[in-house]
């Protein structure tokens, strides 16, 4: 199944390998540069079905660090368009972008919050810092929330104009959308806090706004944390419930990761440790899912698909180590996969 095509709207991926979005912390003023051109372009030459560009801030405060990528202006979008056009012209890969806002986890470097003089005031649904030693984030007003929804919509429009095939909304890992979802980081008493319906309202407003900028030629994914490993926090049952709603709001795939919102949470890590969350969401909500987390081998990825635990395999560290994992896997499995015509002399015949 790894080398079986799959379609989302009119977007067909030639195989099920996805380069997971991973921050590179290498931008100036949020603008992609030659490093990003080579970084993403090389993975497309390795046959990866979908290349996901890293978490990209929808406004300056949305970055994790001041070297993270942005798409809040046209100059940033133009730099990304150069990457998209190269990948489309020189490979069979599709290209996605993860639209993100760090919220209270922003203004950091090496996981340490930087002074406000060098960074910025962080924002959150409630005035609760991620770590007790960090400064108190500004609790958003309803008007500010509406403005942020518009920022996601504007970023989606720029991404579509830049040629991206997939837009992913980052609702995981303790960043702003996740902060709204969790009752541990969201203690609001207005329409954006309290009940499950209220805590999911911000995400659903973003989904609806972004969908207004999309057509059948651009698919929409949402990344969530299947659980945050904390008592009375967001859990996999909540994720199943949310996934059913996202499906009704024209989300094409739920990308299931975990954790990130509660400092010091104990996370049991082992090969494929997040696959059970993807499986539960996929099979109980009847939605397409992606899974990620210590997936390093072709046989392991194929087994996940065969068991019906996911529809896409997102790989992170392994694709940093080996940009050609998709095409090399096709050699092992005697399957067809894109291989650059310039490199045909190195292709292993089946």
Q: What would your notes on this structure say?
A:
By secondary structure, the protein is α/β, with parallel strands linked by helices. It is built from 11 helices and 15 strands. It has helices at residues 34-45, 74-90, 142-162, 176-181, 196-199, 201-211, 236-248, 275-285, 298-306, 317-321, 325-333, and strands at residues 6-8, 11-13, 17-19, 50-57, 69-70, 94-100, 108-109, 112-113, 123-124, 138-139, 166-171, 219-225, 253-257, 289-291, 312-315. The strands form 4 sheets. An 8-stranded parallel barrel has the order 3-4-6-11-12-13-14-15, surrounded by 7 helices. Helix 7 crosses helix 8. The longest helix has 21 residues, at 142-162. It is globular, with a radius of gyration of 19 Å. The two termini are 18 Å apart.
- Strand order of the biggest β-sheet: 3-4-6-11-12-13-14-15
Sheet with the most strands? 8 strands, parallel, barrel
Helix content percent band: 25-40%
Termini gap: 18 Å
What proportion of the residues form beta strands (DSSP E)?
15-25%
Structural class assignment? alpha/beta
Q: Give the C-alpha Rg.
A: 19 Å
Global outline: globular
Mean pLDDT, to the nearest integer, reads: 97
- Unreliable residue stretches: none
| DSSP strand count | 15
Order of helices and strands: EEEHEEHEEEEEHEHHHEHEHEHEHH
Number of helices: 11
